[in-house]
């Protein structure tokens, strides 16, 4: 029986190709996806990794054997696949390993309308079927197999986004975009075509070997080229997309990284201007500035756990207009509650181009506190270390502790969160405070316990 314990995660399936993940396994996943969703038709897409077309085609074959009609949209970003799922009303599967290294690949799956497939909403059932079928052998085909057809939705995707954020009237902007040889190189030219933007394109060639740097802008070393280019050409801002282009990171005119929390607050303010009194979701690691800005603009902030399935569930439950995470995932009600870095980037461009000041000045309104960024520590006993932290702070005067996701400890002018990684023996620490000195002090104290 195939051991899926290392490749089935909370939101997707991913593994090393071909050691853990091959076309025969993808075919089983296609059949299981069809069975669990009960759909009569699905949509699939894939990124630029060399293994992606073959895995995607195998998945389609597996679904078709179960009598499901498959629409293949081919090369696409993950948010383009979400668009297709929403616009066509079909469950979807995107073949990508996102920001992971070149030797990896995987699937991100959703139900019709881009609704998430999480551990409790179908993924565990899919895994169980694949394990059983891989042990028992090939599946019997349906009496009438489904069809496999192709469709190009890139133009429709771009038109939908441009209908949500009007960039036609902004002042001309010079923008550097680093696609990291990922799917941003496919989507950005079509979305930005004809807009008052002077585009300086970096690494737009689709290449799943990532010859210039990893397509993971969350790691500071991967935006060094973008920062230098922004300063060199005197651009108004820079944008960096990850491998499947569902996340977007921003640097200002000086090449300084802009906190995803500041982007969340900026976009929240814009969405609340269109939807007065709306609800905005933010995970518990975003800055204090996010709920502050939401309240200042008449909205209701709702705090939730980290992770796209939790955000999307809260979006649906509360009818929220927008949601943001510290990892630069941005979710929009008008995009089927799904995450799209492109739409967030367009909001930044609209906000910047609608006034005369530089981006650093604009985002300064939303970047109010000192933060550590995420600090990872390798530990032998995640549960034991979390318990040690709780014991160290519990009972201190003026300290509040909650366990919504990991452990969050809050003082008068600071907070920190420690969460265990689901896939590695790591604890992840995030600290924020009113000033840098306090943030440093709290960080060092927490790390001393974590690494004790």
Automatic annotation (TrEMBL):
Residues in Alpha-D-phosphohexomutase alpha/beta/alpha domain copies: 6-132, 156-255, 263-369
Cofactor(s) demanded: Mg(2+)
Coiled coil: none
Any Pfam family hit: PGM_PMM_III
Residues annotated as domain Alpha-D-phosphohexomutase C-terminal: 374-446
UniProt keyword terms in alphabetical order: Isomerase, Magnesium, Metal-binding, Phosphoprotein
PANTHER family found in the cross-reference section: PHOSPHOMANNOMUTASE
NCBIfam families for this protein: PRK09542.1
Family per similarity comment: Belongs to the phosphohexose mutase family.
UniProt name for this protein: Phosphomannomutase/phosphoglucomutase
């Amino acid at each position: 029986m195939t051991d899926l314990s290392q490749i089935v995660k909370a939101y997707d399936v991913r593994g090393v190709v071909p050691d853990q993940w091959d076309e025969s396994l993808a075919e089983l996943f296609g059949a299981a996806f069809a069975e669990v969703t009960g759909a009569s038709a699905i949509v699939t897409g894939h990124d630029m990794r060399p293994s992606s077309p073959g895995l995607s085609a195998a998945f389609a074959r597996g679904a078709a054997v179960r009598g499901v009609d498959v629409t293949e949209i081919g090369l696409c970003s993950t948010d383009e696949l979400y668009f297709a799922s929403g616009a066509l009303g079909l469950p979807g599967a995107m073949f990508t390993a996102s920001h992971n290294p070149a030797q990896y690949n995987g699937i991100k799956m959703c139900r019709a309308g881009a609704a998430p497939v999480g551990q409790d909403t179908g993924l565990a059932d899919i895994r169980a079927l694949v394990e059983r079928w891989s042990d028992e052998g090939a599946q019997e085909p349906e009496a009438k197999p489904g069809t496999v057809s192709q469709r190009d939705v890139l133009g429709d995707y771009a038109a939908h986004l441009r209908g949500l954020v009007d960039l036609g009237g902004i002042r001309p902007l010079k923008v550097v975009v680093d696609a990291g040889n990922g799917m941003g190189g496919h989507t950005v030219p079509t979305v930005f075509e004809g807009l008052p933007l002077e585009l300086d394109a970096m690494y737009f060639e689709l290449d799943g070997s990532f010859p210039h740097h990893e397509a993971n802008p969350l790691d500071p070393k991967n935006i060094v080229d973008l920062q230098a280019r922004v300063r060199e050409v005197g651009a108004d801002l820079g944008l960096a997309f990850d491998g499947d282009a569902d996340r977007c990171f921003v640097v200002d005119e000086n090449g300084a990284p802009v906190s995803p929390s500041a982007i969340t607050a900026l976009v929240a303010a814009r969405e609340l201007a269109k939807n007065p009194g709306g609800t905005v979701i933010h995970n518990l690691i975003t800055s204090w500035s996010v709920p502050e800005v939401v309240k200042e603009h008449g909205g209701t902030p709702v705090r939730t756990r980290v992770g796209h399935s939790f955000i999307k569930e809260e979006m649906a439950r509360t009818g929220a207009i927008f949601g943001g995470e510290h990892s630069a995932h941005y979710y929009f009600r008008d995009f089927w509650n799904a995450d799209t870095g492109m739409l967030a980037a367009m909001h930044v461009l609209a906000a910047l181009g609608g006034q005369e000041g530089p981006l650093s000045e604009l985002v300064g309104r939303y970047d109010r506190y000192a933060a550590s960024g995420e600090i990872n520590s390798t530990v032998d006993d995640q549960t034991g270390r979390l318990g040690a932290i709780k014991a160290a702070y519990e009972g201190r005067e003026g300290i509040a502790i909650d366990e919504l996701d990991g452990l969050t400890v809050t003082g008068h002018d600071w907070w920190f969160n420690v969460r265990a990684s689901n896939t590695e023996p790591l604890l992840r620490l995030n600290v924020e405070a009113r000033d840098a000195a306090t943030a440093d002090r709290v960080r060092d104290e927490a790390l001393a316990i974590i690494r004790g």
